[in-house]
Amino acid sequence: MIDQKLYKPDVIEPKWQERWEKDGIYQSDIDHERPKYYALTMLPYPSGDLHMGHWWAMAPSDARARYMRMRGFNVLFPIGFDAFGLPAENAAISRNIHPQKWTYANIEKMRKQLRSMGSMFDWRREAVSSDPEYYRWSEWFFTQLHKHGLAYRKKSPVDWCPNCNTTLAREQVWGEDRHCERCNTPVIKKELKQWFFKTTSYAEELLDFSHLDWPDRVRLLQTNWIGRSEGASVIFRTEQGDPLEVFTTRPDTLWGATFMVLAPEHPLVKPLTSIEQESKVSDYIAQTLRQSEIQREAADKDKTGVFTGGYAINPVNGKRIPVWIADYVLMTYGTGAIMAVPAHDQRDFDFAIKFGLPILPVIDRIDGLTKSFVTRKAVKTGFAEAVSKSGITCNETSEGWEFTFTAEKAEEYIFTAKEYVTDKGWVEVIGGKWAFVFEKEIIDWDSVESGQRILGLCQKLCPETKNYKILMEMLWQCPFYRDALYHDAYGTMINSESFSGTPGDQAKEKVIDFLQQRGNGEGMVNYRLRDWLISRQRYWGAPIPIIYCPEHGAVDVPEDQLPVLLPEDVEWRPTGESPLKLHPSWRYTTCPICGKPAERETDTMDTFMCSSWYHLRYLSPHYDIGPFDPEEYDYWMPVDTYTGGIEHATMHLIYTRFFHKACRDMGITKGPEPMIQLRNQGIILGEDSEKMSKSRGNVVAPDELVARYGADTVRAFLMFFARWDMGAPWSSGGIEGASRWIRRVWTLFQDMPKQGNPTAETLKNLRRKVHQTLKRVTHDYESFEFNTVISSLMELLNEMVKAADAGATGSAEWKEAQELFLLMMAPATPHIAEELWGAIGKPYSIHQQPWPEVDEEAIVEDMITIVIQVNGKVRDRITAPLTISDEETRMLALNREGIQKYLEGKTPRKVIIVSGKLVNIVV
RNA sequence: GCCGAAGUGGCGGAACUGGCAGACGCGCACGACUCAAAAUCGUGUUCCUUCGGGAGUGAGGGUUCAAUUCCCUCCUUCGGCACCA
User: If we measure between CA atoms, which residue out of A345, A344, A346 comes closest to residue A364?
Assistant: First the structure.
């Protein structure tokens, strides 16, 4: 008897796990009588140990899947392993274990650990991406994409990790020093011929989230990642006649394009480079490449660049403009070339000032800010006074006068300036109007040429300005002007021939029409998103099923020959070459078309390929006439709830959406999206608030906790101790609270019913609390607020303990309370719930019971507390029946003794009554 | 620099739609049980206080009878992007 009273998770947990497994209560099969629910948690990588992060991700997801099951859904909650990838291969190199052996041993260990969690995984549907029966279909998908023109091969510079000896996707390169995602080694560049998937073909559709219930945060991350920008492609020509295409978001500034900048890697750099500039250009290219190897990003932001010696023709005005190269133009974005509009782009402005390139404003300022700085020798006495008559005030400094006014005043100002200007200087107007007033003439600065003429005149009058190459450089020296020289807002076009005067809101559109008519360009949308590089120079991945034939090129391995199996006997040399390249018999084969000698592709696929469709393989992991059984697909897909870490927002979650859409267009899948609802959990940090890692020694091992407290306690604590979507640093002390709670529950259910005479009120209150809790818990499971599920159950337990003390244990209300309590805790702590469910004489299994219904009537409080405030401060409370009217409330409140003293005999100015809640008396 | 999220007791966190801030738990203190300790149970626990009250949700302002909640400015932390044409 005493034994029975002790809570022994190490006994009851394995007992129930075995029973559930034996009875197959978590096997999910097609059942058209019940609504389906596909709950999916992101598949783990078999690193060898199930860590706290896995539990944190999976246990609450499991609880919710269980809850949905009790709600009457036919729930599929599968699991599997993302079993290809680098760590296995690194282990092979460093510890001389075959990746396969390492991986499968890890999987075996993790299966055990996962089972100890007591989750409702349907293990019959487990899929392992490194099984030939799995990667056969990864290869098959590649073939399909290739056939439909969505997979292609191109030579391109790739990021290369010298430590992992592999290509890295852009997404796998992190930080300012551009280090490898996995091992933190700084990456270098390498040119390789690689396979890509055309994710960019789906860029526009990927921006449409209208079918998805996904967190705003993820949608925003994806939107930024895809990086759509609207503008135009404009075709310039080099002087030699080669077309030079640029992408610009500001076609309205075309007349201000005073030079061009190409990425150093741009193919036209060579033909454009003049003999004189050749060495400088090649030096610069070399320097850029070297820098990118080290820390190009971290380098100071000072613009660097070199003139090629070549020129291009601006298609709108036929102007001949110099072509430069600079590292701030990236070959990987747009066309790798830009038209530089220094007056309206910060980077171009900095570049032009630094290298003395012409700057011409072509967009009017919307704020009209106009400035003029006048030196003493430039004007006759009385100038400031004369100007002040126009209502323009000035700030006098030791060197002269600073005038700030609006564009409307400019003409009047210039008129006055003309009267007062001397032959020793000039008066300039900049910002809302660009003009220089000399004694002999007024020159509008409306073209590059007039700018140069003005500068020439200034240099004659003021020899100190001799060093300036361009007018803007001279103005830039004056700090007073800085905020008026450059802007990037849309505004009325100026200095743009017949387009001058076009309002800012129409400018872009009109210029694009004009370009289109003349065949010089067109409206265009550009994306930051790039195609997905899937080639990996590694062994432990799904082989890319391609054979290179000298005659027929890249030929797909025929479907009936899939999978291309990984050879098991490979040699490990950390040379950077895939071990597949070193394998003599595997590599050489014959062409499927002509039968002549040919070579296999030796690269394998990125593991994101495997994880892009695992949710489909779960449906029928052993199906061998297709990647999945269409019948299963039609029943289960799409995934209803997908849970996992936010860190996959821009990689996995974009790839899997792309994959689904591409497959849809190939007739393989259906519907717009693969996963309808997405919820992200936060991250569990170490107790020191740092990321858990072996090197920091702050890793919390779930196995130890399970051994000490039991899985139910660990599950309950994980659900309770922090907001699931936020995560938090681990708190080792806190688990005691969950443990205590579990044991108190156990104790309460072990106690024999006491004799007692509970009052009707006690029983009513108990029932009310039970149903209030049910309402809350139901809501919280629905909305992934797991911490308050547990805290509500803790509150209920406290109430039940009180009710038991008040003698309620023999009542029907008590019985109901016990039942509902167990049903509510069942998803969170499945083992103890099952055990106690049996103990109170209910039939096995609690996990096959329906979720209870809230009795709304039982929830209603009959007596309510109304707060009485005076001037917004709580001064008193009254208890009143629920049915109390506002007028009664008012009278009651005003007549309270405790309130009278705050009123000091004064009549309240206003009394606000919130029915049944609060009275606020304003005095 | 740009975009986004968060900031509440000693700690994790709670608070529905603008209506009693601090639920629940940890920790701590005191008490009961015990030879003793652990466990368990009970009581208390935002701060200040002259014990009347007063202050208080990162800081400052605003709207309102009433603000953790709405608006503006700023600070800090975290995440993402970053010469994106």
Answer: A344
Kindly state the tokens that stand for A761. Answer: 């009120």
CA atoms within 13 A on the CB side of A579: 19
Residue burial A543-565, b: 16+ Cβ < 10 Å; e: rest: bbbbbbbeeeeebbbeeeebbbe
Nucleotide nearest to A302 (CA to C1'): B83
Q: Which residues contact A684 (CB under 8 A, 6 or more apart)?
A: A52, A53, A56, A692, A700, A722, A727, A728, A729, A730
Q: How far is the CA of A921 from the C1' of B57 (A)?
A: 25
Contact A542, A138 (CB under 8 A): yes
CA–CA gap between residue A777 and residue A775 (Å, rounded): 6
Strand partners, A379: A421
Rounded to whole angstroms, the distance from the CA of residue A752 to the C1' of nucleotide B37 is 30
Nucleotide whose C1' lies closest to the alpha carbon of residue A871? B65
Going from N- to C-terminal start, the domains of chain A cover: 141-215+533-607, 228-360+506-527, 369-486, 707-859, 863-922
Protein residue with the closest CA to the C1' atom of nucleotide B20: A867
Q: Which CATH superfamily is domain A707-859 in?
A: Isoleucyl-tRNA Synthetase; Domain 1 (1.10.730.10)
The fold of the A228-360+506-527 domain, in CATH, is Isoleucyl-tRNA Synthetase; domain 2 (3.90.740)
Bases on strand B under 7 Å from any protein CB = 3-5, 11-15, 19-21, 23-27, 39-42, 54, 65-67, 79-85
Q: What is the mean pLDDT of each run of 10 residues along chain A (923 residues)?
A: 68 96 95 97 92 93 97 97 89 86 95 94 96 97 96 83 69 62 71 91 94 92 93 95 95 96 94 95 87 53 89 95 94 92 93 94 91 93 91 89 92 94 93 94 95 95 91 92 89 94 93 95 93 89 96 95 90 68 88 94 93 97 96 97 92 95 96 95 83 79 92 95 88 89 91 74 93 96 95 95 89 94 97 95 95 93 84 83 84 80 75 85 82
Helix (H) or strand (E) holding A678: strand A675-681
DSSP A565: P
3-state SS, A344-356, equals CCHHHHHHHHHHC
Output the CA–CA distances (angstroms, integers) from residue A920 to A878, A885, A914, in the order listed.
Answer: 13, 15, 8
- ipTM (interface predicted TM): 0.95
Q: Give the 3-state secondary structure of residue A754.
A: coil
CATH class of A863-922: alpha beta
